[in-house]
Design brief:
The complex is a heterodimer. Chain A is mainly alpha-helical. Chain A is built from 19 helices and no strands. Helix content of chain A is 68%, strand content 0%. In chain B, the strands form 3 sheets. In chain B, strands 2-1-3-4-5 form a 5-stranded parallel beta sheet, sandwiched between helices. Classes of the chains: A mainly alpha, B alpha/beta.
Chain lengths: 508, 476
């Protein structure tokens, strides 16, 4: 079964799953935290490992064997490399273990995709190939833990981290439940020392972690899942829509995928903070990016830095001339597309981002000359805004291919958007016929406005909202906490009234 | 920060959260006849009725109180599985010390497997039960007793336990539909009774007399049956099983073989009786052409007859005190009056025929004596009704304003060409009336709020002094 967007929801949506926004997790997580801080420090990693495997087995107990297999490869590979006495042996061990890890990923994630695309090719050559009948479920989070494993192997190979002697601790690094299903892809050199040195309970850190989890929950339940209703409605029947209707759906999808993924990341990071870990930031206001290159420095940072360190640089990076550099960029983004899903539309999405960057680099001298000739001050707010808008538009065009069922659907959706001018949908209430009726639409717009304001001040040292809040009196602070909690409880999209979508990234 | 202070903060936070969550859930959720049970003072009730919608519709505790002074509550629930009746009894006994428990057996042969909309039904059963350990036990027993029997994938998962424990999960999206009523506790106390107003003629039932061993019934139901008997015995409560009549949907004989068997069984059990109302249809005087809402449920007319019959039976067979003159139960008198007023308003609003409407206004003195009736006419036509005479008002000119306060005509002016205007007060509430046929202006403003907005012809507005609201607006 190859992964398509529509299928993601089916594959991962089950009452037995334990996503961060599920009711069982509301009880599971506090229990894990309570026991974690009550048991001796030396045993904490054992508890987290048990919790991680239980968490993962809630999806499907059989998945645990794949996870275990991947862990064994990682552990043995690291250990063998640390004992290898020459660089060549190390390289061979790295090659074998990395290939084995990737083979697991390819088999489960890309098996059907490869067969589906290889068989027609051989048919053209009149070579008959019997197509094997795959009936494989895509194990949740396999893309994430495979990349974590490879990161560990590469770091051991490079000498950035020492090979871990304890199998259990490697197993916890690979399977850490808070980052298991949808990242972030934490590096071994950041994570393993933290597993070795568990932190004591610290009120302020726990509080901040919980606040971050709450913010993530808001992004996921209130914004992403609400936007998903409109997006699913329009994309499922895009032939019936034109112009601004399609544009609205594309903009909502841009918000949906950001809030879905950043929301999940914030919940994962917040929950890790509660347990005393300090994960790296995974999103940094990506839609405020002034170029595609800048966008990828802000979007899914743990993944893009992984590609930079373990693919782009080993390919030669920008050290082997301009042509090779552009080729490397293209390869990285094609692989990134493929990583997101075993389908052509993801590959096109990745290719578009690669091409954007190449064209951006190629046209940079001309654009700089034009700015100089036209005496455009590039340091102004208006110019930055212009750059942000252009970048956002390019990202949105690529998102169409990411969300569309097939590549040709993506083209048709864009064509349907530009072929008709219908701004009256904003005044004749037909905007509310896109699957999201007026009241829910207004909640979506209000929540997106809140998201925009919070993102605007994120990482702004002068205007840190969390520290501003912590300076206020307890009544005001608690009022804000309860208001946020109950806003999510009331306006969140969950429960039987909605077919709440799973986290988009849990299927990757 | 010390550990103690952190713990205290967490405790206070969780407490406030629980209070707000409870309030929000209350606002959002569907409320049924069970919710007001918790308003009854602890250990104040003598009799409680259990069963399904048959009981909800047929037994009116306020009528029982008015006729016999019996203080009771109708704790029946729509489509309550029999196993749950045992749980409901447990819940009631954790708040009340009863003298008599009345349980209708209609659902004892039913199989939960045939449930439609199982999820919504389960919510109807549990959501109005107040949060307690007993409720958690009820939910747990429900799943253990029935989950394997329900043909519904929704019900074999852990999710539904969370969902029934914290029903906000089910109701939160109701924020779009919230109305003023959602924010207030149900004002009218009917003690659990829900009348259904419609008349549908039904076939007279023929019921079988053969018997079948109850061991063939669903195991959970049989267990519940014996557990109910044990629980009543343990608490020294008398137990009366009933079978409230329902109609036949076709010409076939009603299958009552299990009910007949139970009737036979309970004869040998002390303090347990069985009242099969199918055997008493003549005494009840139940009219199958007029007294039914549908084949399964009686309407208010049928309810009045069944309640009267059961009330009489209880009075004659059990030692249940008459509380009508007991000052501790004075509130029941107020509740009864409110019930009468509300029933009157519902009857008026359900009446489509104008003559019938005026007839009700004329004849239901018990209710109209607690109202203020405003009549305004703007019409060149004469509208005749004998009831205008009965009401003591003259409306036979173009313009007319009449006020009947607590059954007495306190103002009646008519004019053919001159516009009429009058101001009145109901307590502190100002009322302004205008009748001007030429200016096509008719108006009744109560406390500044327009009620009729230039309606032509004769318009009647009834303000209920006990319910403290406009209970009916009607153009004749």
């Amino acid at each position: 079964m190859y992964l398509q967007f529509g299928k993601n929801f089916e594959d991962t949506h089950s009452y037995k799953t334990m996503l961060f926004n599920s009711i069982p997790f509301l009880f599971f997580f506090p229990f894990v935290v309570l026991v974690y801080f009550l048991i001796p420090k030396n045993w904490r990693w054992v508890w987290l490992l048990a919790a991680s495997y239980y968490f993962y087995m809630c999806w499907n107990p059989l998945y645990a064997f794949i996870l275990l297999g991947s862990t064994v490869i990682t552990y043995v590979g690291g250990l063998l490399m640390s004992r290898a006495d020459n660089a060549f042996s190390k390289k061979v061990i790295l090659g074998i273990t990395a290939v084995l890890s990737i083979a697991l990923l390819v088999f489960f994630k890309y098996g059907s995709f490869i067969v589906d695309n290889v068989v027609p090719f051989f048919n053209i050559l009149h070579i008959r190939i019997i197509k094997p009948e795959f009936d494989l479920l895509l194990p949740v989070g396999i893309s994430f833990y495979t990349f974590r494993s490879i990161s560990y192997l590469m770091d051991v190979y490079r000498g950035d981290v020492e090979a871990e002697k304890s199998f259990g601790r490697v197993a916890l690094y690979v399977s850490f439940f808070l980052q298991l299903a949808a990242g972030p892809i934490e590096r071994a050199k950041n994570m393993l020392p933290q597993i070795h040195n568990p932190q004591p309970f610290e009120y302020e850190r726990v509080k901040n972690g919980l606040l971050l989890m709450l913010w993530g929950l808001f992004q996921k339940l209130v914004i992403a899942d609400r936007c998903a209703i409109l997006v699913n409605h329009v994309f499922a029947d895009y032939e019936a829509y034109r112009g601004f209707q399609i544009l609205t759906a594309i903009l909502f999808f841009a918000v949906q995928i950001y809030c879905d993924f950043a929301g999940y990341s914030d919940m994962a990071i917040g929950a890790s903070m509660v347990l005393g870990f300090s994960p790296k930031q995974n999103f940094n206001k990506p839609y405020f990016a002034t170029s595609i290159q800048d966008f990828w420095r802000r979007w899914h940072i743990s993944l893009s830095s992984w590609f930079r360190d373990y693919l782009y640089i080993p390919l030669g990076g920008n050290r082997k001339g301009q042509v090779r550099k552009y080729l490397n960029v293209l390869i990285v983004f094609l692989v990134s597309g493929l990583w997101h899903g075993a389908a052509w539309n993801y590959i096109i999405w990745g290719a578009l981002h690669g091409i954007y960057q190449i064209i951006g680099a190629l046209t940079l001298p001309f654009r700089e000359k034009a700015h100089s000739f036209l005496k455009i001050n590039t340091e102004t707010f208006s110019f930055r805004l212009y750059q942000q808008l252009v970048t956002f538009c390019l990202v949105c065009i690529a998102w169409v291919f990411f969300r569309a069922p097939t590549a040709s659907d993506g083209v048709n959706i864009l064509w349907n958007m530009v072929r008709e001018w219908n701004p009256w949908i904003f005044t004749d209430n037909s905007l509310f016929n896109l699957g999201l009726e007026a009241k829910n639409f207004r909640v979506a717009i209000f929540s997106i406005a809140v998201l925009f304001i919070v993102d605007l001040f994120r990482n702004d040292d002068k205007m840190r909202l969390r520290s501003l809040l912590s300076q206020q009196g307890i009544i005001f602070r608690w009022f804000v906490y309860f208001a946020a909690l109950f806003f999510i409880i009331i306006f969140g999209i969950y429960g039987p009234a909605y077919d709440a979508s799973s986290f988009i990234y849990a299927g990757f | 920060m010390t550990k103690r202070r952190i713990l205290l903060k967490i405790e206070i936070f969780v407490l406030i959260f629980a209070v707000i969550l409870g309030s929000v859930t209350f606002i959002m959720m569907y409320k049924n006849n069970v919710i007001t049970f918790y308003d009854e003072p602890e250990k104040s009730l003598d009799v409680v009725f259990f069963g399904t919608s048959h009981v909800i519709n047929a037994i009116n505790p306020l009528q029982l109180y008015n006729s016999y002074g019996t203080v009771s509550y109708n704790f029946a629930k729509h489509a309550e599985p029999f196993l749950q009746t045992y749980e409901s009894l447990k819940e009631v006994l954790s708040h009340q010390k009863l003298k008599l428990v009345v349980i209708d057996l209609y659902f004892i042969p039913s199989k939960v497997k045939k449930w439609q909309n199982a999820r919504s039904r389960a919510h109807c059963l549990f959501d109005n039960i107040s949060f307690s350990f007993n409720k958690l036990e009820m939910i747990s027993d429900f799943f253990e007793g029935y989950s394997s029997n329900i043909d519904n994938i929704e019900f074999d998962t852990i999710y539904n336990r969370w969902e029934l424990t914290f029903p906000i999960y089910f109701y939160h999206s109701n924020w779009k539909e919230l109305k003023k009523n959602n924010f207030f506790y149900p004002v009218l106390l009917t003690k659990g009774h829900e009348p259904r107003r419609k008349v549908e003629s039904q076939k007279y039932p023929i019921f079988s007399t053969n018997r079948e061993t109850i061991s063939k019934l669903e195991k959970g139901n049989i267990t519940a049956f014996w557990k109910i008997i044990d629980l009543c015995k343990k608490n020294k409560i008398k137990l009366l099983f009933t079978l409230i009549p329902y109609a036949s949907t076709n010409d076939s004989i009603l299958d009552t073989k299990y009910f007949n068997e139970i009737e036979y069984l309970v004869k040998s059990i002390p303090n347990v009786e069985y009242l099969n109302l199918f055997h008493e249809l003549d005494k009840i005087n139940l009219d199958f052409s007029k007294d039914f809402y549908d084949w399964s449920h009686v309407n208010p007319s049928g309810a009045q007859k069944i309640t009267a019959h059961i009330g009489k039976y209880i009075k004659e067979h059990y030692d249940i005190p008459d509380r009508r003159l007991d000052p501790v139960y004075a509130k029941w008198n107020d509740d009864y009056k409110l019930y009468v007023q509300d029933t009157f308003a519902q009857e008026l609003n359900a009446t489509k025929n104008s003559e019938k409407y005026l007839e009700l206004l004329t004849n239901k003195k018990e209710a109209t004596n607690n109202t203020c009736i405003f009549v305004v006419k703007i019409s060149e036509k004469n509208i005749n009704s004998k009831y205008f005479n009965y009401l003591g008002i003259n409306v036979n000119t173009n313009n007319c304003i009449t006020i009947i306060d607590e059954g007495k005509v306190v103002y009646n002016r008519v004019a053919s060409d001159v516009p009429l205007q009058h101001e009145y007060k109901i307590g502190r509430l100002p009322v302004k009336l205008v009748s001007d046929v030429k200016g096509k202006n008719s108006s009744i403003k109560i406390d500044g709020i327009e009620q009729i907005n230039n309606k032509s012809g004769i318009t009647v507005v009834i303000y209920d002094k006990l319910l403290k609201k406009v209970s009916s607006v009607r153009s004749l």
